[in-house]
Specification:
The protein is built from eleven helices and four strands; from the N terminus they run αβααβαααβαααβαα. With 171 residues, the protein is an alpha+beta fold. It has one domain: Nucleoside diphosphate kinase-like domain (Alpha-Beta Plaits, 2-Layer Sandwich). Helix 4 (49-59) packs antiparallel against helix 10.
Amino acid sequence: MGKEKDLIQRSLVVCKPDAVQRGIVGEILQRFERVGLKIVGMKMVMPDEDHYRAHYEEIGKMITRRGEQAFRYNLSYMTTGPVIAMVLEGVEAVPLVRKIVGPTEPKSAEMGTIRGDFSHMSFGYSDAKGIGVPNLVHASGNVEEAKKEIKLWFNDDELYDYSDLNEKYTR
């Protein structure tokens, strides 16, 4: 029973400003629900620079990997409007969510993924324009990252434990 319980994971998903402003959050959320992932937390927020620095550098090491300028471009993009943060739960939810979302660069994303169906920007174009890549969604990269991100974005009393009808078929 212990190993089975370890396979039930939670992943952070953030619908970024471009998803919110284009009015496609419902379509994005529907893809996760259709495969049987359960929403255990969700809220609309407008984080400040400190929050994004904690998210992208303290957890994701973006500045360490790509430099301060890349962070600044991304920060400028992420602060153009509110985002919708959610925690999804299910069997091996972290890799499943990543599969549904597609790779970070929209141009490289396959049709059928969220980024492949709703965006097309390349890293080269965004770098040439000096802007962040509008890629619709953030999804946790691995289980440890998901735990840290969820703790940053949600308080314990904002997350819910309940049963849903999908569990009969997906767990």
